[in-house]
Amino acid sequence: MPYQSILEKIHAEIVPTLPQGRVADYIPQLAHVDPHKFGMAVCDTSGGIACVGDAAERFSIQSISKVFTLTLAMQLEGERLWQRVGREPSGTSFNSLVQLEYEQGIPRNPFINAGALVITDMVLSHLGEAKLALRELARKLSGGVDVCYNPAVAASEAGRGYRNAALANFLKSFDNLRNEPADVLDAYFHHCALSMSCTELARAFLYLASHGQHAGTALITPSQAKYINSLMLTCGTYDAVGDFAYRVGLPGKSGVGGGIVAVMPGLFSVCVWAPGLNASGNSLAGTRALERFSELTGQSIF
Amino acid sequence: MPYQSILEKIHAEIVPTLPQGRVADYIPQLAHVDPHKFGMAVCDTSGGIACVGDAAERFSIQSISKVFTLTLAMQLEGERLWQRVGREPSGTSFNSLVQLEYEQGIPRNPFINAGALVITDMVLSHLGEAKLALRELARKLSGGVDVCYNPAVAASEAGRGYRNAALANFLKSFDNLRNEPADVLDAYFHHCALSMSCTELARAFLYLASHGQHAGTALITPSQAKYINSLMLTCGTYDAVGDFAYRVGLPGKSGVGGGIVAVMPGLFSVCVWAPGLNASGNSLAGTRALERFSELTGQSIF
Amino acid sequence: MPYQSILEKIHAEIVPTLPQGRVADYIPQLAHVDPHKFGMAVCDTSGGIACVGDAAERFSIQSISKVFTLTLAMQLEGERLWQRVGREPSGTSFNSLVQLEYEQGIPRNPFINAGALVITDMVLSHLGEAKLALRELARKLSGGVDVCYNPAVAASEAGRGYRNAALANFLKSFDNLRNEPADVLDAYFHHCALSMSCTELARAFLYLASHGQHAGTALITPSQAKYINSLMLTCGTYDAVGDFAYRVGLPGKSGVGGGIVAVMPGLFSVCVWAPGLNASGNSLAGTRALERFSELTGQSIF
Amino acid sequence: MPYQSILEKIHAEIVPTLPQGRVADYIPQLAHVDPHKFGMAVCDTSGGIACVGDAAERFSIQSISKVFTLTLAMQLEGERLWQRVGREPSGTSFNSLVQLEYEQGIPRNPFINAGALVITDMVLSHLGEAKLALRELARKLSGGVDVCYNPAVAASEAGRGYRNAALANFLKSFDNLRNEPADVLDAYFHHCALSMSCTELARAFLYLASHGQHAGTALITPSQAKYINSLMLTCGTYDAVGDFAYRVGLPGKSGVGGGIVAVMPGLFSVCVWAPGLNASGNSLAGTRALERFSELTGQSIF
Fold first, then answer.
1. What global pTM score does this model have?
2. Does B297 lie at the interface with A, CB-CB under 8 angstroms?
3. ipTM of this predicted complex?
C-alpha cells in the first residue's frame, strides 16, 4: 500500500480518538490550540511526499527543536560535546533536577531540558547568534523560507519559565554553562517557539534518514546521523522511550506542542501532529498513529 | 568482506586490549576466569556461522539468561506481563532499590534484577519447574544438548546473594511476587548460572533476528520478537544503553560473565565473550568488538 | 497542679478524640486492638507515680524497644557503635531503603528500622542471646517480673516481615551485619513484640531522666543518658521529629502499637498509650496528650 | 566556675586546633578571613556577659540571620507560616533541590536555604522593605546601633548565587513564592551579609533564653520562643543536627561564616566564632568549644 493510502487509513482511524488526549496548558498559546487538529506527513528518501489532514498547518514544535540544536552542536563541537552532557536515558521526568544534583551538573542526555540548555550554551558560545542560526537551519532543511519563531510563545515560555530558570541556574552553579543563564534561556525559549508544519518537519528530518545528507551534500557525517538516531531512540520521547520503542519501533522526537517526528533510516522520515498529550507528555494520538504506520508499512528498526 | 574475515580482523585488533577490562570478582567462579579469553560468533539468518578465538568455550551467561526467561514469560503471559513490570530504562544501577521504592514495587523493566525476579516469579507460577524449562529452552535454541547450569556458580550466587535477596523481599513486600522469595531466588540464581559458548548463544538468539522463528516454526510472534529487540535496545546493557546504542547501534544483552549477544533484525545474531568488564558492567572488549563489527559490516539499526 | 490531676484532666479531654487515629493493621494482633484504649503514666525522679485510664494494661511496645536495644549496645560497644550507624535524622520513612543505598549501607540512626537491625546485630554478636538479654533488661528496669514477648506478635511480624527482610539483606550486602539476616531478624521481631504497660514503661525509662541511674546504680553513664535523650529528640518519632519537638518539646520514642515514652531530664518520665496513629505513624491522641502535658506542667526542654 | 573562667579555659584549649577547620571559599570575602580568629561570648538571663578572644570583632553571620527572619515571619504570619514550609529536618544538604522536587516545592524547614527563601518572601510580602526590617531587628536585639550589611559580601553572594537562584526559581515554579525570585534573592543575600560580633549575637539571642522577652517586653510569645528553640535543635546546624545535639546538647544555629549561636532556655545564650568549618559546614572549633562549654558548665537540655 502506498504511503498516501496508509496515511488516509490512519487518519480515519485516529480522528475519533483525538479527544482522549490532554492539550498542554502551561501557556495560553498551547492551551488554546484546537484539540481536534491532526496532520501527518511522510517523506521518502527518493523525494516523494505524502500528507493528510492538517499537515500543512504550522504548530509549536517545542522540544523537537532540540534535534536541530544538537545537530548544530555536533557540527561545532564533534565528540567533545560528550564531556558536558551524557547520552543515557534519564529514567525521570524531562524537567527533573534530582538526577542533575546526584550527577553533579552533567545532564543525562541532550534531549531532557537540562541537556538541551547545555547544548544551547555550546551553540551560543560558538555562534553568538544561536537564535538566528537555528532558524536558518530549520528553513534550509524544511524548505520553508518563512519558518520563524512565534514571539508570543517565546514570551509566554519566558514568563512561565521558572522551572527552566531553575535548571539553568543549577547548571551554572556546577559550572556547566559558559554563558549567563538569562542568555541561554532566551535562546532556548526561542528554539522551542519555532512554528513548523508536518510537511516541513518531515522534510527537515529527511537528513537523518539519509545518512546525514541534505539536498545532495553532507550536513553531518553518516556516523553523526546514526548517533542522533540512536539518541532519539533511547532519549527522544521523555520518560516513555521504552514504550515508544516497543510500540512504534522507530527513533523519534516529540514535543509538548503535540508533534512527533520519527525516522526509518534509509527509507523515510515521518511527522505527526495531534495536540492532545498522554501522561508522559507525548502526543497520544500521534504515538498511536505512528504505531499504526509501523504496523501498516511493516517498517521498524527492530 | 565475509563475516569470517571480519571476525579475524577484530580478533587481532582486540586481543591487545583485553587486559584493560576488570573481571567480575564478587564470586570466585567469575573472579578466576582468565581475562585473556576472547571469543566471537555470528549466525546469519540463512544458517551460516562464523567464529573466532574461544567461541566454543562455555562461560557463565549470567544476565543474558534474562532474555530467555522473558521469552518464556511472553509465551505464558502475553501482554498481561506488563501489569507487573515496566518497559522503560531505569537510569540507575541494575541492582538499585531506590526506584523500586519510589515506584511502589513495579520494576522499571524485565532486564534489571528486580524485573527479572518478577519475570522469574511468573514463569515459576505457570510451570513450577522454572529451572528445567529454561534449560530446555536454552538447549533447544542453541542446539547444545548438554547445556546446563554450573552448580558451583549457582551456589556461590546464592551464598553471596544478599542484594538480590533484598530485592526479592522488597518486591514481596509490595505484593509483586506470588511465590516465596527463596523459591524465586533459587530459580533466578540457577538461570544466571547457565554455561554456554559464543556459538551456542549466537545460534540461540537467531530467533530474534528471524521474526520469532526457530527452525522453521514460530517460537514467538513477529511482534514479540520486535518487542524483545526493542527492550534489549532500551534496557539490555545496564545503565549504558545509550552509549551502547550510540556506538554499536544494535539491540543487545550483556552479562557480568563478559558475554554480550546482539541482533541485527533480518540479518544476523552475534555473540562476543571477553571477561573483563567496563565501569558499567558490560564487557569492555566485547563492546568494542561489536562496535567494530558494526563499522566493518556497515550494519546497524540506525 | 499535681501530676495526677493533670493526667485526669488530659484523660477527659482526649477520650473524645480517640476515634480520629488509625490503628496499625499490617498484622492482626495490632489491627484488633481496641481503638478506644487510652492510658498514661508519669514517674518522677523521686519515685512518685501517677497514672490514668488503661495505664496498667500491656500493649505491644514495638519500636519503643529500640531504646532498650540501644542501651544494651552502648553498654557493650561504647562510642565504637557509631562506626556502623549514624546519628542524624533521616528525613525519610522509617523503613526506607533509599538513603541506605545512597549512603552505602550505613543507616542514618539507631531508631529507623535499618539502624535498629544493625544495633541488634551488635548485641547478638556480643551476647548470643539477644532476646533473653533484652527481656531481662526490660524486666529489671520496669519492675515487671513477668514482662515477656508476645509470641503471636513475633510470629506475625516474621510472617509479614518482607520489608525488614529486605533491609536486613541489604545491610548484609554492604557488610554491615556480622550475623546472618535470619538471626538478626528473629531477635528484632521479638524485641518489637515485647508487651508492657504505661506504668511499666514510664518506670523503665526513668533512668533517662536520672542521668543513667537505675535504683541507685549507674546503668549507663550520665553522658550516655544525655546521648540517648538527644537521639530520641532528633530521631525518635519517625519522620515527625520536628513536629514532635515543636509541639511536645521533650525527647521521646514512639511505636506503632500506639505507645510513646517521653523524658524530662532531671524531672520525670512519662508514657502514653492510644492505639490510633497519625499519618506519621505516631499515636495521634498520644502526641496530643503529651503536648497537653507539656503545656499544663509548663515543662519542656525548650 | 563562673562563665568568664570557663571561656578562658576553652579559649586556651581551642586555639591550637583552629587550623584544622577549612574556611568557606565560595566568595572572596569569606575566603580571606583569618582562620586563627576565635571569639566567644555568653549572656545570662540576668544580664551578665562574659567574653573572650575576638568576641568584639564583627563577622559575616550568614545563616544565623535565618533565625531573625523567622522571628519576623512568626510575628507577621503566626501559625499560618507552616502552610508553606515544613518543620522537619531534611536529612540532606542545606542547598539540595532533591527533596524540594519530591515534596512539590514545600521546603522541609525554615533553616535550609529553600525554607529561608520562602520565609524571606513572606516578610517581603508584609513589609516590602525586608532588608531594612531585619537590620533594625538585629540592631534592637543586639544593642549594636551601627550593625549593618556588608555590601561587598551581599554583592559577592549575588554574583555567585546561581544555586540559590536555582532554588528560588524552583520554588516559584511550584507557586511557593509570591514575589519575583530576583527580589527575594536580593533580600536573602543581604540578610546573609549582616556583620555582627559574638557579643552582639549573644545579646541578640537572649530573647530565646528568656521566653521571648527582650528588654522587659515580649518580642514573641513564650510558645514561639520554645518553637524557635525546637527548630534550631532539629534543623539549625545543617545535616549535622543529630551530631550537634549529641555532643553539645543545646539548640543552636550556625552559619558558614564560622559563627554558631546556642541557647540554654532560662539560663543563657552563647555565641562562638571560628572561621574554619568541618565537613558539615559548621564551625569545627566552634562546635568543639560549645561541646566543652556544655561539659564544663554541666548545662544541656538533655
1. 0.93
2. no
3. 0.94
